Amino acid sequence: MGQGQPRQGYRQGHQGTGPGAITPDGCAVELYSRLSARTEPEVIAAAVPAGASVLELGCGAGRVTHPLLERGFAVTAVDESAEMLERIRGARTVQSPIESLELDETFDVVMLASYLVHVGEHRVRDGLLRTCRRHVADDGCVLIQREGLDWHTVVPRERVDPAGCTVRIVSSDPVGDGVNSVLAEYVFPDVRWTQTFRSRPLTKEAFEGYLEAAGLVVESYLTDDGTWVRAVPR
């Protein structure tokens, strides 16, 4: 298939363009192998005990997995894409959709990053959060990354990733039922990828309400912009 042709995944409204494998939610495997971790490992390391066991849900190609391993965490990395998991080195890996994951064990830390809590489908979001609750130890915590308040309103916008990629949020357009269709563009000097996906903006009250329905309660907001959250079992 040509570089510019969109490849549809099974998730409605999700697709990606560019070279290489594209996952069901429109993520390009090679793209996520190139992108940097940014500040995520530092935020996580400051919020949990040293050497904690971490269940990373939606690990992708290991952008955050590998820095956590380097910091001494024991990581179990979960993703539905076999192509993504092939890029993981040094962690236990599990191939599974997050919402149906059943490991019959618990972890000190369960991590749901990459704004996955904003997935457009209610049943999928609720399934993600139930998976978090099912796998977190009674004295453990769940770390969740959520969108900033202006994520859908300050559009278009761009930033330059340390890996040398210009990341652009090109548009965020309503498609009904409180969900937006977001177009993202990733441009390296030698290659370009795009991803279109559905995202449901959540107020702080709605976000906390969905967590409570899954048996979790927000303990603290870890960053000034409120995008990283530490939750604990109720």
Write a brief caption for the model.
This protein has six helices and 13 strands. Helix 3 links the parallel strand 3 and strand 4.
Looking at CATH, the homologous superfamily of the largest domain is Vaccinia Virus protein VP39
Say how many strands there are.
13
Please give the CATH class of the largest domain. Answer: Alpha Beta
Output the structural class.
alpha/beta
For the termini, the CA-CA separation is 48 Å
Domains, number: 2
The helix/strand order is EEHHEHEHEEHEEEEEHEE
Walk me through what this model shows:
This protein is of the alpha/beta class and 234 residues long. The protein has two domains: 7-25 and 150-199; 35-146 and 202-233, Rossmann fold. 21% of the residues lie in helices and 34% in strands. It is globular, with a radius of gyration of 17 Å. It starts with 6 loop residues before the first strand and ends with a strand.
List the helices and strands and how they pair.
Blueprint: E1 7-8, E2 15-17, H1 29-34, H2 40-47, E3 53-57, H3 65-70, E4 74-79, H4 82-85, E5 92-95, E6 107-112, H5 122-135, E7 136-145, E8 157-160, E9 166-176, E10 179-187, E11 192-199, H6 204-213, E12 216-221, E13 228-233
Parallel strand pairs: 3-4, 3-6, 4-5, 6-7
Antiparallel strand pairs: 1-2, 2-11, 7-13, 8-9, 9-10, 10-11, 12-13
